[in-house]
Amino acid sequence: MFSKAFCILVVAGLTGFGPILKAHSAPVEAAKSLLDSCPENLKAKISLPFDSPNRTNWHYFPRERDGAPIGDMNEEEKGALRALLGTALSETGLEEVDAVMRLEQVLFDQSQSPGRDPGNYQLVIWGEPAKDKTWGWRFEGHHLSVNVTMDGDETLAVTPTFFGANPATVG
Questions:
Q1: Which structural domain, as residue segments, surrounds residue 58?
Q2: What whole-number distance in Å separates Cα of residue 20 and Cα of residue 22?
Q3: CA atoms within 13 A on the CB side of 35
Q4: In this predicted model, what pLDDT tens digit does every residue of 21-42 receive, in sequence order?
Q5: Disulfide engineering: 77 pairs with which of 5, 63, 73, 113, CB 3.0-4.6 Å?
C-alpha cells in the first residue's frame, strides 16, 4: 500500500501541481492576506462556513456559484488571489489557470453572453484560515475548478480539480 505522501507526490507530478506538502503557514498567510485586502462586502462573499452544503457542490459548467467573482476584485485583491493559488499550484498550474480563462474570453468575444464573462470565476474560502482549524478554498468557473482542503498543519486535499478547454483550438 502506498503512503499518503507518495500518492500526493505522484498526483502532483502528473497534474502540474507544485509541492503541496509545504508548511501550512504559507496558505494560511496567503488566505489571511487576501481577506485583509478586501472590503467588508467582498469579504462577506468570499468567507463562508466550512460546513456549508455547497462546499462539495463543484462543477465546471457556467453557473451561479458561491464566492466573489474576480470581476469584482481590484488589482491588489487579484494579486492576493494569485498568491493563494500559488500555494497549491505550480507555475505550470498557474499558467493553465490563465489559459482556461483566456479561452473563456474567446467564448465571451464570440457570444457576448454574460454567462461567458471571464470575470465570473469565483473565489470562496470555507472556514477560518488558521493553523489549528480545518478550512479550505475553491477557485472555480467555466472549465476550471480548484478545491483545496487544509486541516491544521496538513494539506488534506487538492481535489477535486478540473482544467478544461473550449474552444480546443483558437485561430
A1: 26-163
A2: 6
A3: 21
A4: 444 358 999 999 999 999 999 9
A5: 73
Q: Is 55 inside any structural domain?
A: yes
Strand partners, 147: 138
Axis-axis angle for helices 91-111, 75-85 (nearest 10): 130
Number of domains in the chain: 1
- Look at residue 12 and tell me if it is in a domain: no
Which is it for the CA torsion 30, 140, 3, 9, positive or negative?
negative
Q: How confident is the model over 136-155, as pLDDT tens digits? A: 999 999 999 999 999 865 67
Which single residue is written with the C-alpha cell 469565483? 122
